[in-house]
Protein 1
Amino acid sequence: MFSPDYFWRYSRQIVLHDVGVEGQEKLKDGSVAIIGLGGLGSQVAMSLAASGVGHMRLVDFDVVSTPDLHRQLIYSERDVGYAKAEAAANRISNINRDVRVEPRCEYVSEENARDLVGDVDLVIDCTDSFQAKYTINRVCAKLKKPLIFGSAIEYYGNVATFEPWGDVCLECLYPELSDEDYPSCAVAGVLPQCVQVVGSIQSAEAVRYILGSPTLLNTLLFVDLKNYALDRLNIAQNPSCPHRANKPLSTPRVWEPTEVCSRNGRRQLLMVLESKPNVDEVYERWVRLGDAERRGRLAVEVRKPDGVYTYTAAGAILGEVDTRIDAKTAKQIITQLATTASQT
Ligand SMILES: [Zn+2]
């Protein structure tokens, strides 16, 4: 039975016909993995924490960057340079101390997906890459985990719920798309309110799923914030679904430095290391190179004359570099840092 304080806190949702005391118990016992802590994931995490969902695993490899702040409302200015997983977990603990929150600074890959979602009731996909989405779809199918998919770009968004071990899955709807063929938020732009609406719908759907009555199972909700319109579309089984056909996922995991985006006088670079050196060790090594600083438990930053490079516990170095440095030189700097970081 709930304590009077607990009851008081959630009283405005307990009175809802669909929730009640029994529903609130389900939320309290519920556990979710939120994968991707950008615009969608930060909205989902805050909303579910406030609603009293008991256990939350927060997964992202990235660090908070200044252009995130216009739409990722979970972060504040002082979080810039810190791992998103850690900054988001701190904020969630401030919103609701009863939530057991678990930050995981990791990439989703075929190797770790099972570990990330194996023990939760529900998976909420808030990533911005098809590669990650397909990996999540497949592991959810294998482990029989329900999946709430979301995406948003410019003024438009999608939400759908799948039980991908059944007839219909994400790859029935969007088969074999490649990240290279689609613009990112950095290129196409995104309306902050669009990700907030889409994230709010994902979290409403998560609550409904936990309560036992999802609305968007095998249904695509198309959100149009340009015309303030919502459309629903039934999703049918796709006879040539690559997942059903057991087609292997293409895994373009490169260990080369990659330029992610170049805009407004800044280049963003990413390099994934083959090993995942400990953040403390990287700090020790980078201190010898210059102006290194810890950014919480999960990240360390080094400042160079024309750029800032951050190593996160996911085993990645992210660089934000002035465009006066040409791409080749920037890649050389990040490669050198990677070599230093993984020295034994
Ligand atoms: Zn399918």
Protein 2
Amino acid sequence: MTAAASDTPALPMTRPAGCPYDPPAEYGALGTADPTSQVRCPAGMDAWLVTRYADVRAVLADPTMSSRGAASVHVTRRAGLDEPVRPGSIIQLDGEPHSRLRKMVLAQFTVRRVEALRTYIQDLVENHLDAMLARPGEADLVRDFALPIPSLVICQLLGVPYADRERFQQQSSLLVSTDATREQGQQAYDELAGFLAGLFADKQQNPQDDLFSRMIARGAATGDPLSLEELVMLGLSLLVAGHETTANMIALSTLVLLEHPEQRDAVLAAPARAVEELLRYLSVVQFGVLRHATEDVQVGDRAVKAGEWLVAALNSANRDEELFPAADELDFHRESPRAHVAFGYGAHQCIGQQLARVELQEALTRLFRRVPDLRLAVPRESLGFKHNTLVYGVRELPIAWG
Ligand code: HEM
């Protein structure tokens, strides 16, 4: 890309303080002037910020777009974009190495398997509500509900001991932080990778009824085993993606519903539809996903050259008025509620989306049924929002009832 003028807008742009659920105000202005405009990234390169829904889908569906910088390393200072992609890094691999891995993982995420987890998730939600409500009327919804539920579910699914949660929760918050230095990111990766390597070595000897033991067994049976390096990287991706995103969605959705009490009945009446609208409205993968053009390509009105970077702005696409009339409104009665791109689109579309949906549906409906008088215990203005993490959310959510 030609050297950008000094007035090139810089990422990351943060969400407006007045409405912390909206995309950055600058996205709207840029998008109106030019739906694919140039931005400067902290990782050191310039990229095309793609804001229009149709263009975002076209970029994500294009097989000539490489994912080697995915999901959002453009906004981190530890990007390492010149380094080779690590084997097993499902989100960053392209072509055949990606589809080989994706097929193996998808085989474990069938609708049947996820539905089988629903009863486990329901019990988990109820047990956490029992524990929370046994206390004298106040709690931090993040610590006591939103974070432990997806963490326990992903541990159960992958066969990771929940007792180790503090280690992986700390490392994964560093991995999704835009403020972490390259050294901090590397250290978090090394620690998590070391922990998982030990776990998988054990599973090879003592297989259990969990996703990784099944993948190891399947590899042995089909003559296409995953190396330890692949298993570790895949484990890391699933562990981080599997709890950070859903935990932030549960807490942020609760906050939105506390602010819109008139909408809660719609959530309880049709949870599946409501969860889709919350996913669209909140778009927690807040800095979008990065792609690298391997060929010259036309994106909307913009001619993009091979070698250039693009940021598919999922939050902007999810507020595109062409597809979502009154896009800035939370509306649980929209037509085509699943048309959003909060889970991405195309070859890398989220593998855990069914699981995330079940977790969100069960967590939100059970919370508001059991605690109809739930309220925020502090003014909204005093809440800390995660403007500096790849996955948007709220740091703490003090709540009260009774
Ligand atoms: C509300 C919750 C979630 C959101 C918003 C979300 C969002 C996303 C997005 C936007 C992508 C596409 C990245 C790209 O195209 O570069 C993605 C991919 C992925 N997600 Fe999720 N995710 C969620 C939950 C989960 C869960 C629960 C898991 C695992 C259990 C998971 C595992 C993955 C994996 C493995 C990929 C990479 C797929 C591939 O590259 O083929 N996600 N997710």
Protein 3
Amino acid sequence: MKSTREPTHTRCAISACGWCDRNGDLCRFCAGTGWWRPERPHREVNGLVVWHRVDEPCRGCAGTGKEHGSTAAS
Ligand SMILES: [Zn+2]
Ligand SMILES: [Zn+2]
């Protein structure tokens, strides 16, 4: 099974995004993969809580794998 994934987007939703125009800076959250793998709590029918690992497009770079600075953090 292939474990590495390609970025889902070549550009983010922002047109003329200066971060997307840059090359060489990999997203610090997903290391340039465009994906992050958080763990989600899931309650079983017996009340036990288990953690499921899920794949989501990286929110730090909108799935582009490119560093988008700290604009979303402020
Ligand atoms: Zn962008
Ligand atoms: Zn990212």
Protein 4
Amino acid sequence: MTTQQTNESTIRQWDTMPRKVMEAMEPDGDFAKRHLINPVLLRMLGDVRGLRVLDAGSGQGYLSRMLATRGAHVTAVEPTDAMFTYSQEKEQALQQGVHHVQADLSRLPDLGGRYDAVLCSMVLPTIPDWKPAMRACVQALRPGGLFVFSVNHPAFEQLLATWRKHGEYRLSRYLEEYEIPLTRATDFHRPISAYLNELTALGCRLREIAEPGLEPPIAREAADTESGIESYVHLPNFLIVAAERP
Ligand SMILES: C[S@@+](CC[C@H](N)C(=O)[O-])C[C@H]1O[C@@H](n2cnc3c(N)ncnc32)[C@H](O)[C@@H]1O
């Protein structure tokens, strides 16, 4: 893929995140996160009590706080000033013991010790130079540790927008890598094989792939306010992967 974007330029884009958008994510994310992503991430991670967990690309930090509430010792890595500062302020208010580090995952400093689990939710598709970021996540694990990551499902990335326009999903480009301009930042489309082959090249053993769908009653409840939400019942907007470091 040819792109003008660098990790620095996309981090600057993410740094424009307004505070009210961060606040709207409290306490457990937006609709898709609450109903499709979080339940799978938490199930895959299992009982995190007493475990060292790295939240890689932690954003405004809601997942770090959910994990800390469940008894994990959490380190949260986030590169932007805006979201790093917001998460630190939350930590000062809540005193959950979440340790915050401001860094680009592709140039992750030594965090001091290995982690039992690394969570990297909706982050890899935002990073132009993503392979070093995935490598850093895997290398942060102890042997036998669990790497859980989620991405927009590469086959159904623009599900809601496409469904609203056509009443079905349409996709014309899949195999090549390309940029997807979002409201504030740029995402990068890569085929599923790019993520899974890199995981394998890093020596990881795949444990599970999830393609969560929305429960029909929840879609019916949300239908009045979220047009096209029934698409989430029929097609997966997210791909969630759990793998083990040998
Ligand atoms: C879609 S948000 C997801 C945030 C959080 N994981 C969540 O699930 O709410 C993408 C996040 O990746 C972060 N990010 C972008 N480039 C990054 C990089 N090179 N290293 C680490 N994080 C990065 C952004 O700042 C942003 O917080």
